[in-house]
Design goal:
- 39% of the residues lie in helices and 17% in strands.
- The model has no long low-confidence stretch (mean pLDDT 96).
- Strands 5-6-4-3-7-8 form a 6-stranded parallel β-sheet, sandwiched between helices.
- It is globular and about 65 Å long.
- The protein is α/β, with parallel strands linked by helices.
- The two termini are 25 Å apart.
- It binds 3-methylbut-3-enyl trihydrogen diphosphate (2 copies) and magnesium ion.
- The site of one 3-methylbut-3-enyl trihydrogen diphosphate (IPE) has 11 residues, from strand 4.
- InterPro entries: UPP_synth-like (IPR001441), UPP_synth-like_CS (IPR018520), UPP_synth-like_sf (IPR036424).
- Its EC number is 2.5.1.-.
């Protein structure tokens, strides 16, 4: 059912590939990178790349849900992205208003539930409202979780979790000996995802091969797939190629290969 055409990066040969439907990664996380370069290559302003990138989010969220992915986490704005020129930041802050304003009916139709992780209290009021409304409108959806990392930073997330645990300890409600990996995991912004909180597959587009402060705790055993396409050029086929690459890996989690 999930077959796609794949072009070999070295030989240019096109082959039809088949995805193993029994090995679809449950949690896929994507660092959506390259919007600015995509636009610059077309002599367009950077924000044109962000706009096109938003359309890609719609395409990819729909495709991911049809593939049976359970959680799709998308890195939309980092705690470091405030360093950009204010016109670009303002545009990025308006995108969720536009995105949810037009896409919520499709999300409901596809049974997709919206989640947002990040320091949302620091977002402009209109952005916060768009996020709140989308979460409320999709709260009864039982299919894929579409998790946006918005004003998110992996280190900040860990700091916040540690502060909370320290407060509980100080109040006498937590014995430091009870601070386990599970306990820390539960305090992170993915804690509500339970067993699904760690990405199985992490994709980064645009050729950059770094994490840029994304899900530092949760990616301990994720498979990384770096792709050269800029995010606005990403689509269902590129997603399937990344999943195909994932399916060729042997996850060992520190144990031995199980052949
Ligand atoms: C990713 O694209 C989107 C955000 C970080 C908000 P970029 O804006 O980082 O695009 P490049 O990396 O400059 O090309
Ligand atoms: C990471 O991309 C953040 C998002 C995709 C939202 P950046 O473009 O901000 O990362 P760096 O600056 O290249 O590391
Ligand atoms: Mg970038």
């Amino acid at each position: 059912m999930f077959s796609f055409l794949s072009k070999d990066q070295k030989t240019g040969e096109v082959a039809e590939r088949q995805l193993d439907e029994t090995n679809i990664p449950a949690h896929v996380a994507i660092i959506m990178d390259g919007n600015g370069r995509w636009a610059q290559q077309r002599h367009l302003p950077r924000i044109a790349g962000h706009k096109q990138g938003m359309n890609t989010v719609k395409t990819v969220a729909t495709a991911a849900s049809h593939l049976g992915i359970k959680v799709l986490t998308l890195y939309a704005f980092s705690t470091e992205n405030w360093k950009r020129p204010s016109a670009e930041v303002n545009y990025l802050m308006k995108l969720p208003v536009d995105f949810f304003g037009t896409f919520v009916p499709d999300l409901v139709k596809n049974n997709i539930r919206v989640k947002v992780m990040g320091y949302t209290a620091d977002l402009p009021a209109a952005t916060q409202k768009a996020v709140r409304d989308a979460i409320a409108a999709t709260k009864d959806c039982t299919g894929m979780v579409l998790n946006f990392a918005l004003n998110y930073g992996g280190r900040a997330e860990i700091v916040t979790a540690v502060q909370r645990l320290a407060q509980q300890a100080q109040a006498g409600d937590l014995d430091p000996a009870e601070i386990t990996e599970q306990r820390i995991g539960a305090e992170l912004m993915t804690g509500d995802l339970g067993d699904l909180q760690d990405p199985d597959l992490l994709i980064r587009t645009s050729g950059e091969e770094r994490l840029s402060n994304f899900m530092l705790w949760q990616v301990a055993y994720s498979e990384f797939v770096f792709m050269t396409q800029h995010w606005p050029d990403f689509d269902q086929t590129t997603l399937e190629q990344a999943i195909y690459a994932y399916q060729q890996r042997h996850r060992r989690f520190g144990g031995l290969k199980n052949e």
